[in-house]
Each structure stands twice: as C-alpha cells, then as structure tokens.
Amino acid sequence: MRNLQELPKFRDGLSYIYVEHGRIEQEDKAVAWWSPEGIVAIPAAALGVLFLGPGTTITHAAVKALSECGCSICWVGEDYTRFYAAGMGETRSSIGVLRQAESLTDPSRHLQIVRRLYMMRFREPLPPDLGLAQIRGLEGVRVRDAYARASRETGVPWHGRNYDRSSWESSDPINRALSAGTSCLYGVCHAAIVSAGYSPALGFIHTGKQLSFVYDVADLYKVETVVPAAFEATAVSDKGVEGRTRQFLRDRMKAARVLERAVDDLHRLFEAPGEQDQYVVDGSKPGDLWEPEGAVPGGVAYGCDSAGKGFAELARGVDEVDE
C-alpha cells in the first residue's frame, strides 16, 4: 500500500512557471504575479517549481505561501542561462539524504547506484557483465541516436552539441533551445530531489558540484523530453526558441509523466519505498541525537529531572574532585 505521506503534492502538480520583470505578492491565501500587462493568479497549491527570472521581486508573505504549498522557488538568469539559488522542499526528515550519503561513501553501493541510474535510461535490460566504460559507451550511442533521430523528424540541421556558456547568442538556435530546455528540466529535478528529502549535491555519475545529483536525475528524462521539445521549437522558427522550448517542454513533461515518476524513481533508486517521515505532522520537532547504539529522541534533558537536580549533583561532584 502506498504511503499517503509520501509527498503527493509534487507528483500531482503542474511542472513549472517562469516569470520575469514583475513582482509576486500574496493574493488572499494564494499568490499573484503583477506585471505591466496586469495581474495573473499563480496556482501555488498545484505548482512544482516557480522560476524567478531577472527583474523579479517577491514578498516575504508570498514566499511563505509558496513554501506552505510545497512549491519550490528557483532564482535563475534570463532564459535559464544561470542558476542562482533554490528554496527548501516539504520534507523535514533526513532519512533520504542519510541513505544517499551511505550509498555514496560505500564503493560497492556507489557502483550499484551508478549502474542502476544507467539502467533506468534504457528500455531494454543491460547485460550484467558490462563494465562501466562499456555502459558509458552505450549511453553515448543512445544520446547521439536521439539527436540524429530528432533532426531527421523535424528537418532541423544538427552538427553536434556545441555552445559557449560565456557567449549565449553565439550558439546556433538548436543548441540554445537545448540549453534552455535542459535548465528547465534541472529546476524540476532539483525540486523533486529536495521535496523527496535527498541532496542535490551528492551525485553518483556526476560529482564535484552542488547540483551533481540534479544532473544524474535529469539525464533519466532528458532524451524523451528536452531533445524532442528543443528540435520541435527550433523547427517552428529560429527566433524565440528559448520561450517556445519552455512551452513545448511543459507538454512533453506532462506526456512523459515526469512529475509523477520523479519521486518514485528516486525512492526506487535507493530502494526506499517511502519511509514514514516523523516530521510531516510537526516540522519543528527536535531531531534525534546520535548514540553509538542508535539514535535517541532529541529535546530531552538527559541525566536530570525537571528541577535540574541532575546538573546540581554533577556540579557537586566536580566541586568534590577539585577539593
């Protein structure tokens, strides 16, 4: 039976909304987007991620309302060329990140997670005797075939993944579209990871960056969502490919059920089918304390009663030793 406290808001919500050059304020018990064109209500309770682009301001009350709805907030550059910061997800438990850290630091379990991540990208099972280098080779072939197939189907010329992060406009339209779409997918995966209680920094295939695990998870869905959306958007016109890619990607993500799959895939990756989160009901509850024999409840005055007699006796013992 499914754990009903397994963060259903994320899987049942919309994917993302991107806004820029305006302000977000609380509107009744929801939030609204104020811009020169008018006021637009934002469905915070049904939203996975809200991307804030340049020229955006947001009030404290709006941030609180979005947080209570389980909507992640990401501060990004224009057309997602930069990722600056993100808010905290719903879960207050560290069960997931502890399991993730244990898997990362154990070499055999680390390799097992890496293989599992690659296997989740392929429709057919991988032979168990393949080495890591061979698996990476197959993955490279899979991605190249996806680009070539999308190019044939849309008629968009493809000369390889080539872009300069320091000069956005110097890239050709299809590479700009792919970069914009990939950034959107990163934001959604970041929100899923944080919402499910894992760390975006503890990557297994990718490593060394604060978003390493985001890159690992995003690669599970990139070929089926970002690649076709970017090529379809570029096929329409070379102009405005970034915004059009975002629109097409939303449809692709809905069709691929990315929001429905993301949290389940994370739990499946670590073989953690939604443990009970003791902090769902009371997020301010003190955390446990570490002991060699196992964790003990926090927020307890160990070794003394309510009158503090234990500390008084300890103090007297110290005085006697000094004498």
Short description:
The chain has eleven helices and eight strands.
Keywords:
four-stranded mixed β-sheet, 8 strands, 323 residues, disordered N terminus, single chain, 11 helices, alpha/beta
Describe the structure.
- The model is unreliable at 1-9 (pLDDT under 50).
- With 323 residues, this protein is of the alpha/beta class.
- The longest helix has 23 residues, at 132-154.
- The strands form two sheets. It has a four-stranded mixed beta sheet with strand order 1-5-7-8, with helices on both faces.
- α6 packs across α10 (258-269).
- Helices cover 46% and strands 13% of the residues.
- The protein is built from eleven helices and eight strands.
- β7 and β8 form a beta hairpin.
- It has helices at 8-12, 60-68, 95-105, 107-119, 132-154, 173-195, 212-218, 222-236, 241-255, 258-269, 309-322, and strands spanning 14-19, 22-27, 30-35, 38-42, 47-52, 56-58, 72-76, 83-86.
Low-confidence stretches: 1-9
Rg: 24 Å
Shape: flat
N-to-C SSE string, H for helix and E for strand: HEEEEEEHEEHHHHHHHHH
Structural class: alpha/beta
Mean pLDDT across all residues, rounded?
80
**N-end to C-end Cα span:** 64 Å
Query: What is the percentage of strand-forming residues?
Result: 5-15%
Fraction of residues in H or I helices: 40-55%
- What topology, given as strand order, has the largest sheet? 1-5-7-8
What profile does the largest beta sheet have? 4 strands, mixed
In DSSP terms (H or I, runs of 4 or more residues), the helix count works out at 11
The number of E-state strands comes to: 8
